[in-house]
Design a protein that fits this description.
The complex is a heterodimer of chains A (330) and B (398).
Chain A: H1 2-9, H2 12-22, H3 25-55, E1 69-72, E2 75-78, H4 91-98, H5 101-132, H6 138-148, H7 154-165, E3 170-171, E4 178-180, H8 190-214, H9 217-226, H10 230-241, H11 243-258, H12 262-267, H13 279-284, H14 294-329
Antiparallel strand pairs in A: 1-2, 3-4
Helix pairs in contact in A: 3-14, 4-14, 5-8, 5-11, 6-8, 8-11, 8-14, 9-10, 11-14
Chain B: E1 4-15, E2 18-30, E3 35-39, H1 46-54, E4 61-66, E5 69-70, E6 81-84, H2 96-106, H3 111-124, H4 140-152, E7 158-162, H5 170-187, E8 190-195, H6 198-204, E9 207-212, E10 215-220, H7 222-227, H8 232-237, E11 244-250, E12 254-257, E13 261-263, E14 277-282, E15 287-289, E16 303-312, E17 317-323, H9 332-338, E18 339-344, E19 355-360, E20 365-369, E21 375-377, H10 389-397
Chain lengths: 330, 398
């Protein structure tokens, strides 16, 4: 009887604490929701903000605040979430009318697919070697490959730009001895696909190495006895069995290239779709010397992101299982 | 369907700076249609030998011939072989039909030929109606049959089987063993079969190749390996439970061991002289309680022993006998000298810790050179003339 009155006299926090002590699961669950909410807000808010910008008519973009004053029961306050100033879904159509934005998307898509195919094929060969063969210097070589991804991409830009410009022959380091004159690759897919492939290769090699290393030797032996070469065994047996790993590497590469800005903005020097400018180039072309159409840029960003969102939703199960099972091994 | 010939096959590999010889100068000549078992303890080189035949490993030295072709450096797919793996190795992402037809599809056989062969192979291993299943939906025995079907469908010259029954339970193992024998009869193909189970080797093969330490110890029909082992290793490896070994030395008229002596005329056997160190080998079933010595055509002297542990198996009793002052808890070396394992009739009245006498069947007493392990003779002839020991034994027989 006495305890009952005690409980009643305590506040809700004390009661919640009491129950949490008895059942710690509640705390973990509560923390999970808090963390979830935090990540959801931080990742989704930019998209919400883009949407707000996109549907706001261009004339009202710069006038007034996006945070409306709300008067309720005579008390006026600032609503803490930005809301559109007006409703203009027309922007999503104007986006395609003003510049051929679909072509920029196609460029990005083509660059991403080409790079992904190159990366997966080459990284598969490397992953096979690193994952399944024993040879002296293996760990050292792997380290060297991973070291490529330690360098900031900016470190490669100037030499690559010089090389892709094709104006002067490549010389031996520290000398004037010319080796060869590279073809002019600026404003062609080559100037982007080549560095993208090289930069995103190490991660894919690492992922595929852990996956290919886990396929039992017996299966490869069986395939070879049945009539494949080593290469045939890789593509007919090892790769299909490592599908989650291949999917992970492919999707990561695809997304990275699709969203790439740094190299493509430098290598595709013009913002014309016909010159292989990717999505970012397209978005920037809404900005002219005298106007900046924020609402169109926002709408284009949303349209541009959609394919990746769809890809991730479709492949997410594979990616998650791929990343975790790869992580278990090493 | 072809002969298989290994000449001076040696495989060395580098294990962290240390050279390991997995197979050492292996010479084998296997006839068309033979069923050969490679048998030996783990690490004896049997799997490596198999892999050099399959082409999964290239030998450091030596050549491999299949039929009239030198296949030493050919890739596995061009050797006309098929293999059944220890871990079965079905492709998990393909159904049974695709697994079985994998090799045929790679070789671009016409579809109707593939269908016909797959059907026939499935029929042989009794897998009808399961062609659409995935490997993960099948039991261990069924998977094993798929693996065998995948091998026979290609109609290979040589079949390689690497411990195919190792992962099956005991009952299924015996069943699959009979099926394999039936299969061999039906296919009439050369089969190389690797196992560490000497019983499997005995029951299945035309000839057994016993391997140890990367070397071929003996290759002979199972009963020859059993009755006339070439050396101590083969003698100890073939037969279950294994042969009793007792170390001794040769005197002018006997073989003296620590606890007993046997009449022996050194002149009756080539390559042995007084003072030589020899090891006596007797199988458990060639030792009899002295009371039953009439059943033995050529019994030896009586040997005093005391029963230690009895293991009734149903059709026989394995009795561990201690000789002399032998104690149970002894080092392995002493145990072999002071202990005999005897297989006796299940109806015998015998108890633990009972003093009895046993006799050896002299016709099946093996002599080995202790130093080299080489067999000297596989039968100890009775000494008929001279010292009268035989007579005295004859008296005691009455």
């Amino acid at each position: 009887m006495a305890t009952a009155t005690d409980n009643e006299s305590e506040g809700p926090l004390a009661r919640w604490t009491q129950r949490a002590i008895q059942d710690p699961e509640r705390v973990y669950r509560a923390l999970f929701y808090v963390a979830m909410a935090f990540f959801l807000v931080t990742t989704l808010f930019p998209f919400y903000w883009l949407l707000v910008l996109a549907v706001t008519p261009s004339g009202r973009l710069l006038a007034g605040s996006f945070l409306p004053e709300v008067t309720l029961f005579g008390v006026s306050a600032t609503f803490p979430l930005p809301v559109p100033k007006g409703f203009n879904p027309q922007a999503f159509i104007t986006v395609f009318e003003q510049v051929p934005f679909h072509l920029y998307m196609l460029n990005s898509f083509a660059l991403a697919v080409t790079t992904t195919v190159i990366v997966i094929v080459v990284a598969s060969l490397a992953g096979y070697v690193f994952g399944r063969l024993r040879f002296p210097g293996r760990a050292f070589l792997m380290l060297g490959i991973l070291a490529v991804s330690y360098f900031p991409p900016a470190a490669f830009v100037i030499p690559l730009f010089q090389a892709f410009a094709g104006n002067a022959p490549i010389t031996l380091p520290f000398t004037d001895i010319p080796l060869f004159t590279p073809p002019r690759l600026l404003n062609t897919p080559g100037s982007m696909v080549l560095p993208f492939s090289a930069l995103f290769m190490p991660l894919s090699i690492f992922i595929l190495t852990t996956f290919y290393g886990q396929i039992p030797d017996g299966l490869e032996d069986a395939a070879r006895v049945e009539g494949t070469t080593r290469l045939g065994a890789l593509f007919r047996v090892i790769m299909p069995l490592s599908a989650p790993g291949v999917a992970t590497a492919a999707v990561l590469t695809f997304i990275a290239v699709y969203n790439e800005y740094f190299f493509s903005s430098i290598m595709a020097t013009s913002t014309e779709a016909a010159r292989w400018s990717p999505i970012v180039g397209g978005i920037l072309s809404y900005q002219t010397q005298y106007t900046t159409q924020y609402n169109l840029m926002a709408a284009a960003s949303i349209v541009g992101v959609l394919p990746v969102v769809i890809l991730v939703i479709v492949a997410q199960e594979r990616i998650v299982s791929g990343l975790t099972s790869g992580a278990l091994k090493e | 369907m072809a002969k298989l010939k290994l000449e001076h096959v040696t495989k060395r590999y580098d294990d962290q700076g240390e050279v390991v010889t997995a197979v050492d100068d292996m010479n084998l000549d296997i006839d068309h249609g033979e069923f050969i078992c490679f048998v030996g303890p783990s690490g004896c080189g049997k799997s490596t030998t198999m892999e050099t035949i399959a082409g999964l490993t290239i030998p450091t030295e030596g050549t491999v011939h299949i039929g009239d072709r030198d296949v030493t450096n050919l890739p596995p797919k061009d050797r006309g072989i098929a293999m059944v793996f220890q871990n079965i190795a079905l492709f998990p992402h393909m159904d049974v039909y695709d697994n079985i037809s994998f090799g045929l599809r790679l070789r671009d056989y016409p579809q109707d030929e593939i269908d016909r062969r797959v059907e026939h192979a499935a029929d042989i291993v009794q897998l009808e109606g399961m062609l659409g299943r995935m490997p993960e939906e099948m039991s261990g025995g069924q998977r094993q049959r798929v693996a065998i079907a995948r091998a026979i469908v290609r109609e290979p010259d040589v079949f390689l089987m690497d411990e195919p029954l190792a992962n099956l339970d005991a009952k299924l193992k015996v069943h699959m063993r009979t099926e394999l024998q039936r299969l061999h009869k039906e296919l009439d193909t050369t089969i190389i079969y690797v196992t560490h189970d000497q019983e499997e080797a005995m029951t299945l093969s035309d000839r057994i190749a016993v391997l140890d330490g990367g070397r071929l110890q003996q290759i002979d029909p199972p009963l020859t390996c059993y009755n006339e082992p070439d050396n101590l290793f083969v003698a100890g490896f073939i037969g279950s439970p294994s042969m009793n070994f007792v170390e001794g030395s040769v005197t002018a008229d006997a073989i003296e061991t620590k606890n007993f002596s046997l009449d022996f005329d050194p002149a009756s056997v080539d390559g042995i002289g007084v003072g030589d160190e020899v090891t006596l080998g007797v199988r458990p079933e060639d030792i009899y309680p002295a009371a039953l010595h009439e059943e033995v055509a050529d019994p030896s002297e009586r040997i005093d022993a005391r029963t230690d542990i009895l293991e009734p198996m149903g059709d026989e009793i394995f009795a561990y006998m201690l000789l002399g002052e032998g104690e149970t808890s002894m080092s392995q070396k002493q145990a072999t000298n002071d202990q005999l394992l005897v297989s006796i009739d299940p109806d015998s009245v015998i108890e633990e810790d009972e003093d009895i006498q046993v006799v050896l069947d002299r016709r099946n007493v093996h002599l080995f050179d202790t130093a080299t392990g080489e067999a000297i003779t596989h039968t100890l002839e009775a000494v008929w003339d001279g010292d009268g020991l035989t007579e005295s034994e004859a008296e005691s027989d009455d």
